[in-house]
Amino acid sequence: MTNLPVQTKTLDLIGNTPLVLLDGPSKAAGCEIWGKCEFANPGASVKDRAALWIIRDAEKRGELKPGGTVVEGTAGNTGIGIALVANALGYKSVIVMPDNQSKEKMDTLRALGAQLVTVPPTKFADPNHFVHTSRRIAEETENAVWANQFDNVANRRAHIEGTAPEIWEQLEGRVHGFTCAVGTGGTLAGVGLGLKERDENIRIALTDPHGAALYNYYENGELQAEGSSVAEGIGQGRITANLEGAPVDTQFRISDAEGLEWVARLLREEGLCLGLSSGINVAGAIALGRQLLADGVENPRVATILCDTGFRYLSTLYNAEWLRAKDLPVFDWLGSASEG
Q: Is 104 helix (H, G, I), strand (E, B) or coil?
């Protein structure tokens, strides 16, 4: 009989996700590219980690009391993680998100019992931005806490204490680079800091989508955005508290088209159904691997984050009409299906 691991608490299912060698990206880079399967978390995304650490931190500080409510502004995945963790610990959740995010995320939040508030997408400086709206709701709600994922550094501690040591152990201490895109900054900064504690020579890279300002910031010292992206949950125009002090050694900018190419290839060739942020991360990991090789690193290993499941984007990334409307390439099998 096979002895399978047993978790004594449901929240123990968050983290300790598998790390998989990605064949196609490894061949493209000329070195090993590894993906951390964060879609294996209970909420099917990397954001479960931040949700758990943020709620546990609020409990430790005495801010979150029995029967309380957790309020957050999110593109969706953090809200899903918060709803699940809150349910497991006996709390309520109120989630504020822009109304241009995927229908699947909204439906999931409602199904989990969260109170969903949608607002029009707007710039961060606008007081009606989803982050500011969530803060006001928390202030106006009795026995509520504001998760504040962007500037609550419990977010990045989840990756310093969890994700980074997992990657280190899974690769047996032989890892040369790590990269991912930034939403809150918690994953990049946390994994970067955690890995640098173990080996300061590990190269940490930002992978930025178009429409975000951080590539220019790390390249030229100025927060300036160029172009646009349809990727949800990534792309940042400011230095959040989670991002402060992030040990970023290099940076890459990846287009939606390049990210989608890897989304398509990973599905067709390796059976992984992922969101666009994962495709962008993989493209960045390939660029980092090539850079390490060019700099003379022998047989480098690069890790990145496979952020969430593609099943969360059936109405967008996996919908031929939506892709055409965004002037993005349509996966060949979707085109055939719609025409047949």
A: helix
